[in-house]
Specification:
Oligomer: heterodimer
CATH class of the largest domain in chain A: Mainly Alpha
Strand order of the largest sheet of chain A: 1-2-3
Cofactor (chain B): [2Fe-2S] cluster; [3Fe-4S] cluster
Largest interface: A-B, 43 and 51 residues
GO molecular function (chain B): 2 iron, 2 sulfur cluster binding; electron transfer activity
Structural class of chain A: mainly alpha
Strand order of the largest sheet of chain B: 2-1-5-3-4
Number of helices of chain B: 9
Protein name (chain B): Succinate dehydrogenase/fumarate reductase iron-sulfur subunit
Pfam family, one (chain B): Fer2_3
Distance between the termini of chain A: 62 Å
CATH superfamily of the largest domain in chain B: Alpha-helical ferredoxin
Structural class of chain B: alpha+beta
Number of strands of chain A: 6
Order of helices and strands of chain B: EEHEEEEEHHHHHHHH
CATH superfamily of the largest domain in chain A: Fumarate reductase/succinate dehydrogenase, transmembrane subunit
Shape of chain A: elongated
Number of strands of chain B: 7
Number of domains of chain A: 2
Family (chain B): Belongs to the succinate dehydrogenase/fumarate reductase iron-sulfur protein family.
Order of helices and strands of chain A: HHHHHHEEEHEEEHHH
CATH topology of the largest domain in chain A: 3 helical TM bundles of succinate and fumarate reductases
Strand content of chain B: 5-15%
Helix content of chain A: 55-70%
Amino acid sequence: MAKSALLKSSLAKKYWMALTGLFLCLFLIGHLIGNLQLLATGENAALNFNKYALFMTTNPAVKLLSYLTYFSILFHAVDGIVLTVQNKKARPVGYVKNSASSNTVWASRNMAVLGTLILVFIVTHMVNFWAVMHFDENMPLQKVEIEVGGMKQELYLTTDGGYMPVAQVEQGNVEIKHRKDFYDANAHVKLKEGYKDLYKVTVDFFKHEKWGLLATILYVFAMFVLAFHLYHGFSSAFQSLGLNNPKYNSLIKNFGKAFSVVVPLLFASIPVFIHFILK
Amino acid sequence: MASKYINITLKIWRQKDAKSKGQIETYKLDNVSTSSSFLEMLDQLNEQLVGERKEPVAFDHDCREGICGMCSLYINGRAHGPDTKITTCQLHMRSFKDGDTIYVEPWRSKAFPVIKDLIVDRTAFDRIQQAGGFVSVNTSGRTMDANAIPVAKFDADRSFEAAACIGCGACVASCKNGSAMLFVGAKVSQYALLPQGKVEATQRVLNMVRQMDEEGFGNCTNTGACEVECPKGISLENIARMNREYLVASIK
C-alpha cells in the first residue's frame, strides 16, 4: 500500500514534480553563477571561463550532480506529461463558456505549455553548447598570440600553465588526440593538455554574423518563458510538498516571484552583453 | 434596494439523460425581478416552459440558504456564478443587467457525469467520504463526551473551517484539472486537526486519496481556482495539510 502510494498516486506525482523542480531551481543558481563569468572582460576572461568549463566537465562530484540534473529534467518532463494527460482526461466535456482568468493567473494555467517550450530550449541549448563541448571534433582549443622578437607566434594554452606552439601541430611534430591532448607524433607520448575554448564557441555563437541576433532574441524569449514557469512553479512546489504555513507563505511566495524575475533576467543579460556590448 | 425587472437571454445546457448528447438551448425570459435568487429565476423559466408544454430544466437545489451543498451550476464561466463565497441559491439577479446573456452549464468532470440537464452525479464525493472521512466511535451508549478531550482553540477553529465544506463540488468544477483536492483536503483536515481524528489519520488519508484517484479526478496544479470559487472559503492550506499527512502516512 505505502509503496504504491509513493509512486503511483496523484499526490506522489506531485511530490516528484516538486522535488525535481526545486532541484532544478538549485541547478539554475549554480549554472547562472558559472555563466556570469561570461560577463567578465579583460585578458583572463576567456581562460578563466575555459578553466571553469574544464572543471565542470571533469570533476567527479560535478559529474554526479550533472547526471542528477539530466534525470531531474527528464523525470520532471515525463511526470508533467503524465499529469497533463490525466488532467485532460478528468474533464472529457469542457465548458462552452469558461472564465478562467477570474480565478487564476495565466502562468498557473499554462505550466505544461511553458514547460514544453523550456524543454525545446534545453535540447537546442545542449546541442549548441553541451554537445559541442563533449563531442564536436572541431571543438577549438584556446590559443593566444604573442610577439617574440618582432615575430608573431600563435600558442595553445595548456593546463599546466604553459604553452604549445601552434606551429608544432601544423608541422606534424605534435598531434591532437581526444580533441584536447597534445601527443608527440613520433613517440606517441602525451605532452600536454589544451583548454577547450568554450568561451570562443559561446561568443562566436551569439556574435554570429547571420544568426547571432536571432539566437540572442530566441534566448531572451526562452528566459521569458522560464520566468513565467518559475513564477508559478517555485511556490507551487512548496505547496505540493505540504509546506504551507501562514508564517512563511508570503516569504516563499515573494522569494519565488523575485527568483522568477532575477534568475532569468541575469541569464538573458549574458547573450545580450555578448551580442551588443562585447568587443 | 427597490427591485427592478430585467429581461435576459439564457443559454442552458439541455441533456435528456446520461446517455444522450446534450446541447445549449437559448431561452428568452422577461420580467425577472432583480430581487429574485438565481434559482427562483430558473423556477420562473420552468413555469414559462411548462406553460409552453415544454420539458422544464432539471437542476439541483434543496435548502436554498447556502448550507446544503445541493445547488451547483456553472454560470457565465464560473462555479456558482459571478460573486464569491456564495452558492447559486445565494446568487441574486441583481448581479445581472437588463439584456444580459447568461450561460448555465452543469459541473464538468469525468467523476461527475451528467444525469439530466444541469444535474450531475456527485456520489463520487460520498464514496471518498466513505473511504475514510469519519471517526470510528462505539455508539453503544457509553460514548465519551467529546468535550472531555481538550482541543486547542486554534486547532478547533481550523478544523471547524475545514468542516464548513458542504461538498458542492465547485472546487472540481472550477479546477482546470477537475481535481477534487480541496474537498478531500478539507475532509482530511477536519479530522487530522482533532485528537479524536488522529487515531485513524494514517489509514484515512491513504484511503481517501486512493478513492479520489479511482474516481478519476484530476491532479492539483495549485492554480488556486478552487479556493477563489469555494462558497465556504476553504483554504488551500487544507490541500497542503493533506499533502503532508499523505507523505507521512505513505512512508510509515
